[in-house]
Specification:
By secondary structure, the chain is of the alpha/beta class. The protein folds into 2 domains: 144 residues, Lyase, Ornithine Decarboxylase, Chain A, domain 1, CATH 2.40.37; 216 residues, Alpha-Beta Barrel (TIM Barrel), CATH 3.20.20.10. Helices cover 27% and strands 25% of the residues. It contains 11 helices and 22 strands. Strands 4, 16, 17, 18, 19, 20, 21 and 22 form an 8-stranded mixed beta sheet that branches. Strand 14, helix 9 and strand 15 form a beta-alpha-beta unit. Helix 5 crosses helix 6 and helix 8 packs parallel to helix 9. The protein is elongated. The structure holds pyridoxal-5'-phosphate (PLP). Pyridoxal-5'-phosphate binds next to strand 15 and helix 10.
């Protein structure tokens, strides 16, 4: 008996009809014709809408949801999200412009990130959005810019916590970090803040990303609230905002399961009453990127060549790591594992085989699927990478090897499609 191989978590966003994936209410083959080229990314409105609804079902009603738009900054996606969530978090001046083009109120837009330029800060101050300050130096620059513009800056302090989010795909707090002000230095910073012409809103405490373990997130929430309450004693005025980060992960690789959202929600319901008593004016915010959009997107490329090398089948496609670095395994993964991949126009297929899906780049890193079981495919067939709605096109080295770019489309009605592979 061979060992049972770990499987990808079931994908439920996109139905299959007559063995063809349906995306945006039409067969993938027709969608490819309507897009007019491969490769392309397609993002589904209904999947995003359903995800936000699911969060709202499980989280306490007081929790506000922000979209961290660096996960997917396509303007149409950001506009769609703006109608669903309570705020947008940006991480650059460019993202700020996209966020300001939506209907989101400026005070519900926040800007985090180290190394904000004076030009970025001036745009943010003039717009009246909330700046999550990453250092004492940045605070002084913001105050000077506010004075020059005659506008009182809206600010929060990003805190580098004195703990880590355990089992996190990417740790973004704890220990020495370029992000935020070390928790132990925050009281001194707040004393100085109180003497500057700055409008203080609260704290932003983000400890990590891509976490699938409810217990780890629950523990981080508990520690985050405790830290916030300790620091609030030093604030120049009562907190109006407490951003407790996010870090909710999605299953990418074989053997990964879904985050137990109900457990995270229950824990928050248990913790919130004490927090609300201590910080009665504070809006409690959770900011999420990939959890909101990651499962709503696919990346589609077309098979150009099918070749067999020493017994191994290679499907050479027109897409690859230049559009989708993370599916190739080169965006922060330690050990390369396969994203869920199917042949979209023949999901089950008549015959199945083990094949690798590669791109056109002259590097062995350009690998979208490494020896996966797929329907037998050849030129013209469409290779689909799921879980591609976040950290896809804009997180990839598009200029590498000077191949054509990928197109992005936002598809579908606002009605959940249902179904699954
Ligand atoms: C990147 C980032 C996020 C989003 O992380 P996800 O893993 O996509 O949810 C949220 N907050 C901050 C401060 C970030 O830098």
């Amino acid at each position: 008996m061979s060992a049972v191989r770990p499987q990808h978590a079931p994908l439920v966003q996109f139905p299959v009809v007559d063995d063809c994936l349906q995306i945006g209410g039409m067969p993938l083959t027709r969608l490819a014709a309507r897009v007019g080229q491969t490769p392309f990314y397609a993002y589904d409105r209904a999947a995003m809408t359903a995800r936000v609804a699911e969060l709202r079902r499980h989280l306490p009603p007081e929790i506000e949801l922000h979209y961290a738009m660096k996960a997917n900054p396509m303007p149409a996606v950001v506009q769609h999200m703006a109608g669903l969530v309570d705020g947008i978090d940006v991480a650059s001046g460019g993202e700020l412009r996209v966020a300001l083009d939506t209907t989101m109120a400026p005070l519900n837009i926040s800007f985090a990130g180290p190394g904000k330029s004076d030009a970025d800060l001036a745009c943010a101050v003039a717009a009246g959005i909330v700046l999550n300050m990453e250092s004492a130096g940045e605070m002084e620059r913001i105050a000077a810019i506010g004075e020059r513009l005659g506008v009182r800056p809206q600010v929060a302090v990003r805190v580098n916590p004195d703990f880590e989010l355990k089992s996190s795909g990417m740790k973004m707090g704890g220990g020495p970090k370029q992000f935020g002000v070390d928790a132990e230095q925050v009281p001194e910073l707040l004393a100085r803040l109180g003497r500057l012409a700055l409008d203080f809103h609260g704290f932003h405490i983000f400890s990590g990303s891509q976490n699938l373990k409810a217990e780890a997130i629950q523990e981080a929430h508990e520690k985050t609230f405790a830290l916030a309450l300790r620091l609030a004693a030093h604030a120049p005025r009562p907190l109006r905002m407490l951003n407790i980060g996010g870090g909710f992960g999605i299953p990418y690789f074989p053997g990964e399961g879904r985050l137990d959202l109900a457990a995270v929600g229950e824990n928050l319901k248990r913790l919130l009453p004490d927090v609300k008593r201590a910080l009665p004016e504070a809006h409690i915010v959770i900011e999420l990127g990939r959890y909101l959009v990651g499962e709503a997107g696919v990346y589609v490329s077309k098979v150009i060549e099918r070749k067999v090398s020493r017994g191994q089948v290679y499907l050479v496609t027109d897409g690859g790591l230049h559009h989708h670095l993370s599916a190739s395994g080169n965006f922060g993964q330690v050990i390369r594992k396969n994203y869920p991949v199917v042949i979209g126009n023949r999901v089950r297929g008549g015959e199945r085989e083990t094949a690798s899906v590669v791109g056109p780049l002259c590097t062995p890193l350009d690998l979208l699927a490494d020896q996966m079981e797929l329907a037998q495919a050849g030129p013209g067939d469409l290779a689909v990478v799921f879980q591609s709605g976040a950290y896809g096109l804009t997180a990839s080295p598009g200029a590498f090897l000077s191949h054509p770019g990928a197109v992005e489309v936002l598809v579908g009605s606002d009605e959940p499609a249902g179904g699954g592979v």
